Amino acid sequence: DQQVKQNSPSLSVQEGRISILNCDYTNSMFDYFLWYKKYPAEGPTFLISISSIKDKNEDGRFTVFLNKSAKHLSLHIVPSQPGDSAVYFCAASDDNFNKFYFGSGTKLNVKP
Amino acid sequence: NAGVTQTPKFRILKIGQSMTLQCAQDMNHNYMYWYRQDPGMGLKLIYYSVGAGITDKGEVPNGYNVSRSTTEDFPLRLELAAPSQTSVYFCASSSGLAGSISSYNEQFFGPGTRLTVL
Prior knowledge:
The complex is a heterodimer.
Chain A: E1 4-5, E2 10-14, E3 19-25, E4 32-38, E5 45-51, E6 56-59, E7 62-67, E8 72-77, E9 86-93, E10 100-102, E11 106-111
Parallel strand pairs in A: 2-11
Antiparallel strand pairs in A: 1-3, 3-8, 4-5, 4-9, 6-7, 7-8, 9-10, 9-11
Chain B: E1 4-7, E2 10-13, E3 19-25, E4 31-37, E5 43-51, E6 54-57, E7 64-66, E8 76-78, E9 87-94, E10 108-109, E11 113-117
Parallel strand pairs in B: 2-11
Antiparallel strand pairs in B: 1-3, 3-8, 4-5, 4-9, 5-6, 7-8, 9-10, 9-11
């Protein structure tokens, strides 16, 4: 039973436009949410995170929005660049940081 | 600073063989994790450790064992390999602290080990 879901396996966006990646979770005990980016044949790398006490966190071109009542978070990338083409995973944890639950990933393709 | 290193990069095992996947980190992180990623799926937690001598099961621990005798190393042992264990294995580490407002306990991942069991 997946506790973190990314329902869009892929997304294609034109360079310069906005990319919106979505993630849903079921466990109301999750307090921390993270986004990772993964290139082929590499391990995931951390991108941005948000705590459940906030509804928005911004870092350069990347913004994560959290809607706790809907148990939904999204990652916005503006403007999208070809180098952003990768698989994006969302992950969630409680405040013990013992266990992280990952979504199945969304493959983003940014077209030049 | 090498970060998280994993060996080997690739391995093919026969059914019933055993092997150990090595993982080491040089960031003095207390928390270490083992994940597996099957095709088209997310990462599933196998085992984790919150410090030397302390380990616990994740979501999918069956068929695996771990040990943590030092802060740096966290090997994953596969006994009696089965085709269902064909996967890419990632090791990760983190400080285990809340961290800064923009970085809540991010995990640092190794490059992965691609294992095939035939």
